[in-house]
């Protein structure tokens, strides 16, 4: 996320803007990132959705997914290399993570299937990361030690990546918890309506039953003449 420059006003007056070197570092923090795809999509019942990614040989990749809403929060996942060899396959998983290194150049395919479900559709989130983050500084891997400013920037960069990852997982958990709560609320509402109808029917039946006990029964007598 791009960072906006701001000025801070304190009891000592207006502070000067950040130095150009710090602004350059902030821009590098915002720009340096590995190629990643984060998508949340709807997966209808009896449906299958596939995604494709062009990957170079020797690239380290990570596939992470989670079912947010729908049914038992499970889905089938399958990952294939360009030759059609299955690298990863799991059935009815709620969430999982898989890391692999591309064995050859080509298009890799990963699919999510909800074909086993007849009535419920799912909401699925996945994060597919290709490669690792490039170094924050071109000379980060040099033999000499980094300066204090460079070391601090690298630490902040790693901390920000961890914060983004935690925020993503917390948002997914919040969405899943909200879905579970709404589903439970709907079931409780339907159950309460059913109980109210049953109580009404039973009450009316008891009233008619008690009324039949205290109602006068007319008896007819037949006089037989001689």
Automatic annotation (TrEMBL):
Domain named GOLD: residues: 48-130
Signal peptide: 1-36
Alphabetically ordered keywords of this record: Cytoplasmic vesicle, Endoplasmic reticulum, Glycoprotein, Golgi apparatus, Membrane, Protein transport, Signal, Transmembrane, Transmembrane helix, Transport
Coiled coil: none
InterPro entries listed in its UniProt record: Emp24-like, GOLD_dom, GOLD_dom_sf
Segments traversing the membrane: 188-210
Transmembrane helix in keyword set: yes
GO BP annotations, alphabetical order: protein transport
Pfam family, one: EMP24_GP25L
Keyword check for Transferase: no
Membrane topology: Single-pass type I membrane protein
GO cellular component, one term: endoplasmic reticulum membrane
Subcellular location: Cytoplasmic vesicle, COPI-coated vesicle membrane; Cytoplasmic vesicle, COPII-coated vesicle membrane; Endoplasmic reticulum membrane; Endoplasmic reticulum-Golgi intermediate compartment membrane
UniProt family annotation: Belongs to the EMP24/GP25L family.
Function: Potential role in vesicular protein trafficking, mainly in the early secretory pathway. Appears to play a role in the biosynthesis of secreted cargo including processing and post-translational modifications.
Protein name, entry field: Transmembrane emp24 domain-containing protein 7
Gene designation per UniProt: Tmed7
């Amino acid at each position: 996320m791009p960072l906006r420059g701001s000025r801070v006003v304190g009891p000592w007056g207006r502070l000067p803007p950040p130095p150009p070197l710090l602004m350059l570092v902030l821009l590098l923090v915002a720009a340096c990132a590995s190629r990643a795809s984060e998508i949340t999509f709807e997966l209808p019942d009896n449906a299958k959705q596939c995604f494709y990614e062009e990957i170079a040989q020797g690239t380290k990749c990570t596939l992470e997914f989670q079912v947010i809403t729908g049914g038992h929060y499970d889905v089938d996942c399958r990952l294939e290399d360009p030759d059609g060899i299955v690298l990863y396959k799991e059935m009815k998983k709620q969430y999982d993570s898989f890391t692999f290194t591309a064995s050859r150049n080509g298009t890799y395919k990963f699919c999510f299937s909800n074909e086993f479900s007849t009535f419920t559709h799912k909401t699925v989130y996945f994060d597919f990361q290709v490669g690792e983050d490039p170094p924050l500084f071109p000379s980060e891997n040099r033999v000499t030690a980094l300066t204090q400013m460079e070391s601090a920037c690298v630490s902040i960069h790693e901390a920000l990546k961890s914060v983004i990852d935690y925020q993503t997982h917390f948002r997914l958990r919040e969405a899943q918890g909200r879905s579970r709560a709404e589903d439970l609320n709907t079931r409780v509402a339907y159950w309460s309506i059913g109980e109210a109808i049953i109580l009404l029917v039973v009450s009316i039946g008891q009233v008619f039953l008690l009324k039949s006990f205290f109602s006068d029964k007319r008896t007819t007598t037949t006089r037989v003449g001689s």
